UniProtKB/TrEMBL annotation:
This is Sugar ABC transporter substrate-binding protein. PANTHER family: ABC TRANSPORTER PERIPLASMIC-BINDING PROTEIN YCJN-RELATED (PTHR43649:SF34), ARABINOSE-BINDING PROTEIN-RELATED (PTHR43649). Keywords: Signal, Transport. Gene3D superfamilies: Periplasmic binding protein-like II. Residues 1-28 form the signal peptide. Belongs to the bacterial solute-binding protein 1 family. It comes from Pseudarthrobacter phenanthrenivorans.
Amino acid sequence: MSTRRIINRLAIGGICTAVALVASGCGAGGPAATSGSAGSNTVNVLVEAGGHAELTGVAEQCKKDAGVDVNFVELPYDGMFNRLSSEFSSGNVSFDVAALDSVWLPSFKDAVQPIDELFTDEAKKDIFPALVKEANVDGHFIGMPAWTNAEIILYRKDLFEDAKNKADFKAKYGYDLAAPTTWKQYQDISAFFTKDGMYGTDVKGGVETEWLAHVLQAGSPMVLDGDKVVIDNAAHKEALDFYTSLVKDAPSGAAQVDWAAAQNLFNQGKTAMTRFWAHAYRQIPKDSAVAGKVGAAPMIAGSAGVGGVPGPWYLTVPKATKKTEAAKKFVKCAYDYNDKGIESNLGLAARISAFQKYQDQPGYESFKPLIETLNGKATATRPATEKWQQIVDTVLVPMLQKAVAGGDSATLLADAKKQIEALLK
């Protein structure tokens, strides 16, 4: 599942808000403006429902600086891919800029323009390496990252700083209780806090991203290495065995736990730690049992180092737009004023400097761990294949659900390889 879908389900709910500067479309059923129909300096920007919050400040600044007006057209995530496919295929698009989920870039690479001129050496130094790599498809940069996210560690700071817990942990494990940095530490701490009605962690059998982060940490590309399916290699098994080893220290029903369930468990004080998307740190309800008691740390490291799976969205310019110049001006504004996204409800950006601008301010304690995770040695984006979401939905998630329910990891991975190879034929 994409990061944006996760964010919408946890924080936005797909609600359309009237923030556009000129006019705002909402939903796939409404009339769509035609590219080029509202003046040479007005661009239609297609975004997933709720997604334009990160771009509202950019749009306001772009009008001042470049004279470009913006009309946001919003669609629900589940209908956006089909709308994009239809319009790109027809060659008659109703938008001049499209925000694309990272997993869609391979599907639409031939329908969008290169924007190589925007990726200067200076720009590339200020964008996380994994995102720079993903934006380059077939030798050209085709999307400018607008915002990104990654899983980090959220933990109960009050429990970790408790004098008795510190003494008891040191006596049992021989080292100081602190935010975990390795798999072994995560296992130890999870076991230590599983008592008195509390669990050390959660295990999310209903989503794939977290396990894939551990695959990266174990030193392998996730699922695919180029065109070769490698899901049955030693690193994937090591990561799956680690993942399932935590089931004993997690709430029951792990096979059905997804992002929303895990977030609720942590906010209700049922788990001492969670591996979760960084934006959630700033969205802990004030009346939550853990409000004011949460610390943030980078994602744990395996033998290959710290590794996470970024969840970026990219701004692209369709080849069929009649407003290439104005569209590229908007994309350039989105880079120049990328920090405006942090002022939105979700508080996300894509430039390193944008996160650094806020990282020392109260309430943004999750930003340093997020930067470290996104810069992690093992951090990498999802495989560049049009079949990725199908692989996730029909193979990876069902496999994980069986694994956390007690299935044999080697057998499950071997079967998954056969299924994926069949999908890719």
